[in-house]
Amino acid sequence: MQKWIMSGLFFIACALAIVLMFNLPGKEQVAQENKPTMPKVTLDAAKAEATVKANCISCHGDQLEGKVGPSLQKVGAQLTNEQIFTTITKGKDAMPSFKDKLKPEEIANVAEWLAAKK
């Protein structure tokens, strides 16, 4: 009787493993889902600067020189606009996500503005 129970449990575990193997997303699919899509925007420097002043200067400084967060004065030389967009949207390390605080278009405008800083 015990052999039958153990065989049944083994069969159920194998069947579950096969089902999960074919239904779980692959690494590429997970990476694509986790990468936010940057909307196309026309740079509005005044709006971007206002957004930065309202949301970023407490950590990055009023001249973007860096305080708690890193300096952003030449961030465009290190990161693309899409990388900046992803960082602002999802957050990174100690930086919080702004996806619930700012609209994607606002984040994209700030990303374009920061990407121009080289």
UniProtKB/TrEMBL annotation:
PTM summary from the entry reads: Binds 1 heme c group covalently per subunit.
Q: Is the keyword Iron-sulfur in the record?
A: no
For the ligand (heme c), the binding residues are: C56, C59, H60, M95
Q: Which GO terms describe its molecular function?
A: electron transfer activity; heme binding; iron ion binding
- Source domain of life is Bacteria
State the Pfam families in the record: Cytochrome_CBB3
Q: Does the keyword DNA-binding apply?
A: no
Q: Which keywords does this chain's UniProt record carry?
A: Electron transport, Heme, Iron, Metal-binding, Transport
SUPFAM superfamilies, alphabetized: Cytochrome c
One cellular component term (GO) for this entry is: membrane
Per UniProt, residues of the Cytochrome c domain are: 43-118
What PANTHER family does the annotation carry? CYTOCHROME C-550, CYTOCHROME C-553-LIKE
Name of the protein this chain belongs to: Cytochrome c
What is the native source organism of this protein? Answer: Paenibacillus zeisoli
